[in-house]
Amino acid sequence: MEALIMEQTSMTALISLFSRAYHFEENQSNSIFADRIARSLLSDEEYTSISENMSDGISFFNPTFIGSKDAALRWIVDNQLSPSPLGRAAYTEELLERVIRDDGVAQYVVCAAGYDTFAYRRPDWAETVLVFELDLPQMSQDKRIRLSRAGVAIPKNTYLLEADFSFPNWKKTLAGYSEFDKSAKSFCSMLGLSYYLSETAFRTLFKELSAVLAPGSHVVFDYPDELSRTAMGGDRARRQNLLAEGAKETMQASYSRDSLRMLLSDAGFYILENLTPQELTERFFSDYNGKNSQHPIAALDNVNYCLARRL
Question: In what order do the strands lie in the sheet containing 107-111?
Answer without folding.
Answer: 158-162, 130-135, 107-111, 186-190, 218-224, 303-310, 269-275
